[in-house]
Structure formats: C-alpha cells, structure tokens
Write a structure and sequence with these properties.
The chain is built from twelve helices and twelve strands. By secondary structure, the chain is of the alpha+beta class. It has two domains: 143 residues, PAS domain (Beta-Lactamase); 166 residues, Reverse transcriptase/Diguanylate cyclase domain (Alpha-Beta Plaits). Strand 11, helix 11 and strand 12 form a beta-alpha-beta unit. Helix 8 packs across helix 9. The mean pLDDT is 88.
C-alpha cells in the first residue's frame, strides 16, 4: 500500500512541477488531435491575456483567429502521424502568436520574435495523444541579427558607392562591366557602353570654386540615376567622367539613349551664388563586339569615341565605328 509519506512526496513533486511550468520563460501549450487546448502555462496566460480556464477545451484557432491555419495544421498533423518533432524558426515566420515584446527598448521591436518546437507526447497506449508546442521568445537574438545584417548591407553599399555623388564607384562599376562583357561573350546578345564627360569642368572649378564643381558632379549624377533603366549600371569613372552599361542595347539604341540624356542634362539649371550655371556633356558610345578579347578594349573604344566628341566641339554624342573595332 502507498503510505501517507509517499502521497505527500507525490503532491510535493507535482506542486514543484506546476510551479516550474508556470514560471518558465517559454510558452507551453498542450493540444489534442482536434487542436483543442488541454493546458498552457503562465507565459501563455500572461502574453495572451487568456487564463487556462477560459482556454481549456477550445480550438487554438478559435482562441487565435489570425494563426496561419493551413500551415500550422499540416505541421501539427505531421507530428501526430510521424511521431517526430517539428520546428519553426523566426526566419521562416517571425512569430506564430502576435505577442508584444517584453523588451521593446532593448529588443528594438514592439512585437515578439518566436521560435516554435512541436513535440509528440505518448499516452499510456504508446500512441501520440497530444502535441506540446513550445514557444521561445527570441526577440533579442532576432533583432541583433537583423541589425547586424542591416549594418553589413550599409557597409556593402558604402564600399561600392562614390561618396560625393552617391552613384556607383569605379571599382564596383568595373566589376559589373566585366560581368556584362562575359555575358555578351557567351550569349552573343548586344550591349553598349557610354562614357560621359562634363564639358569645361575645369572652368567650373577655376571660376566658381571646387564646391560649385561638386554640385555640378552631383547634378549630373542625379540625372543619370533618374534616367537609367533598372537593368543599366552607371558609375563615376573618375574626376568628371561617368560611365553607363546598357545591356541588350545595340549601338544605335545606345546613341538615342545618350542623345536623350545629353538634352536632359543641358536643361539643368544649377543655382550657385545668385548665378544659374548650365551644364553640357560629351559622350562616347561603343557597342560590344565579339572581336574584343578583354573588357578594357570596350572601354578604350568608348573612350576614343568620347575623345572624338570633345575634339569636334563638345556637347556631342559619338558612336564608335564598329568596323574600326574589328581592325
């Protein structure tokens, strides 16, 4: 027979276990095969505002109508059927339950990020009669990771961006040109390159100062960014020279793009110390040709066309002779 002392020990152990469940920093939910709540702990009561007495016997989907029902039922059903654990991380679903963060300031999030583990629980008949959902508050981990990723992206943007103009710097732009060159070589699809130079830029600096020159560089850069297609890649090549890669664009199409951009830039009126400064640019255009062995040759052909545009009086767009490229 079980003596009184043993009964007291059992009650004491159950009391300790109950306290432990109630004071855990994780949520615990017991569900039957009908997704009805059999039990949940203090974490769930505190964050949902629903006491266990009001939740017991009700469907989890009735208590939380915003749960992803189709996805969650598939997960729970697989635990019952396969008798193995299932998991869901905050990276798959930021949160299963729309709970407010307990640390909105230090966690840098108003809502709680959660990891979820679903555990099969065997009954006395050795069958899975219930599934336990464990809810882990991972808000601080998630927000730290997101902050780190954001910082890394910012550093990446800084490493490839020209600080003065905000356009791609030469290093990043040239990497893109090399990739486009290789793509053209493989696919035999057209692409063109524009080299753009601001006319009389030294005069801006000598007459109005370097600050005025910087404003001119920014104005031209902004117009290039505003005019380019999403597939184009523009960059500051150096000094007052910019470059634009135009994928899937032949020479004549690129010449039309360049003429349009030249006109747009000529219409810019930059106000500087009570003066309106006008800007003109010269451009050299080169279409990719299979005879080019390295991407630097592409730059050289566009640069030669640019030199010709400047020699012919500036404020011009010149398309490189494709036959000259084959010589």
């Amino acid at each position: 027979m079980t003596n009184v002392s043993d009964l007291h020990d059992d009650v004491r152990q159950q009391h300790i276990l109950f306290q432990l469940l109630q004071t855990l920093d994780n949520g615990l939910i017991l569900l039957n095969s009908q997704y009805e709540v059999m039990l949940w702990n203090g974490f769930m009561e505190n964050h949902s505002g629903i006491p266990i007495g009001a939740a017991r016997g009700k469907s989890i989907f009735e208590l939380f109508p915003n749960l992803p029902k189709i996805w969650l039922t598939k997960k729970i059903d697989s635990v019952f059927r396969l008798q193995i654990r299932a998991f869901c991380t905050w990276e798959e679903h930021p949160r299963l339950f729309e709970f407010k963060s307990t640390r909105p300031l230090s966690g840098h999030s108003l809502m709680m990020y959660q990891n979820v583990t679903m555990i099969p629980l065997l009954g006395l008949d050795s069958k899975v009669n219930q599934v336990c959902l464990q809810i882990y508050d991972v808000t601080e981990i998630a927000t730290r990771k997101k902050a780190l990723e954001s910082a890394n992206l910012s550093l990446q943007r800084l490493s490839r961006t020209d600080r003065l103009t905000g356009i791609n710097n030469r290093g990043f732009w040239e990497e893109n040109l090399e990739q486009e060159f290789l793509r053209c070589h493989r696919s035999h699809r057209p692409a063109s390159l524009i080299m753009l130079d601001i006319d009389h830029f030294k005069h801006f600096n000598d007459t109005h100062g370097h600050s005025a020159g910087d404003e001119v560089l920014r104005a031209v850069s902004n117009q290039i960014k505003k005019s380019q297609r999403t597939t184009d890649t523009a960059g500051r090549y150096g000094g007052e020279e910019f470059a634009i890669i135009l994928p899937d664009t032949d020479g004549q199409q690129a010449l039309a793009v360049a003429e349009r951009l030249k006109q747009q830039i000529s219409k810019l009126q930059l106000e500087w110390q009570n003066q309106l400064l006008t800007i003109t640019v010269s451009m050299g255009i080169s279409e990719y040709n299979q005879s080019m062995s390295v991407y630097q040759e592409w730059i050289d052909h566009a640069d030669a066309a640019l030199y010709k545009a400047k020699a012919c009086g500036r404020n011009l767009c010149v398309l490189a002779d494709p036959f000259a490229q084959k010589q």
